[in-house]
Amino acid sequence: MNSIPTTALGLAEGGLPILPLRADKRPFGNCRACDDLACGGRPNMATPGPCVCPWPCHGWAAATTDPDVVGSPQWAAAWRRARAIGYHPGGAGVTVVDLDNADAVAWARTNLPPTATVATTRGEHWIYRGALRSVNGVRPGVDLKSTMSYARWLGPGTGTPADLPDAVRALAEKTPAAVRPVPRAVSVPAPSGGGQCRHRSPAYLERGIAMAEQRITDATSAVHATVYRTFLAVLSAHGRCDCLTEAHIGRLFAAAQAKGESPRHCADAWSNAQTALGM
């Protein structure tokens, strides 16, 4: 029997904003009603605040404490397929210092004050009271998950959350290791019909690029495949118009390289996506 929905309902009733996660630990993708943000809801990570869509398909923005939503028919199918529970740390007023390996844990034990600790598959989550911006790669093996992000619920752990220390706040102000995007020019057919590009709304295009960046940033496995699928989605939506610029492509390449992709991998993924779409 799948106990995830029951556990999730209890967490929501206790005030933890939660959402279902798939077997690959990622949130569920947009439902058909939300394709291209047709629902009018908030895009994944583009703007703060909860999504107004009743389906759990907007990443961290789908997280809720409303038991009527968690137990609703719209969420039932997702819970049946879910293999884990995610939560929005910033919405719960906490910051998760995600320590991804033994070296990162050792660093934390030397440099950070004790706090609530939850064991993970490869390391530990250190949880502090207080929210801040989420930043990946602040140190080798160390990510900060708080506002506009999600973390896996792995149980209450041990200890009591301490107040967010200055040492963690300082990490959030650092810029992860610089990456040098190597964007390639997009050569695509002109829009059919010769009319004005329907993507000429800056907000529409910005939402699409922001969602693509975050989809890459949130990848915890199969990064190569995630980058390719994301590039494919961006080109499918915007590649046959003239709205994509070098700056947009550079942002996508930078996000991929921040996850460890090489410039060559980025260029190959972009080229392969163009080929798959006949561009």
**Most strands sheet:** 6 strands, mixed
Shape: globular
Strand share of the residues? 5-15%
Distance between the termini: 47 Å
Which stretches are poorly predicted, pLDDT < 50 over at least 5 residues?
43-47, 177-196
Question: Mean pLDDT across all residues, rounded?
Answer: 81
- Could you tell me the radius of gyration in angstroms? 20 Å
Order of helices and strands: HEHHEEHEEEEEEHHHHH
Number of helices in the DSSP assignment: 9
**Which structural class best describes the helix and strand composition?**
alpha+beta
Quaternary structure type: single chain
Helix content: 25-40%
* Record field, number of beta strands: 9
Provide a descriptive summary of the structure in words:
The protein is an alpha+beta fold and 279 residues long. Helices cover 36% and strands 13% of the residues. The chain is built from nine helices and nine strands. The strands form two sheets. Strands 3, 4, 5, 6, 7 and 9 form a six-stranded mixed beta sheet that branches. The chain has a three-stranded antiparallel beta sheet with strand order 1-2-8, with helices on one face. A hairpin with a 4-residue loop joins β4 and β5. α6 runs antiparallel to α7 and α6 packs parallel to α8 (246-258). The longest helix has 16 residues, at 202-217. The protein is globular. It starts with a helix and ends with a helix. Residues 43-47 and 177-196 have low confidence and may be disordered.
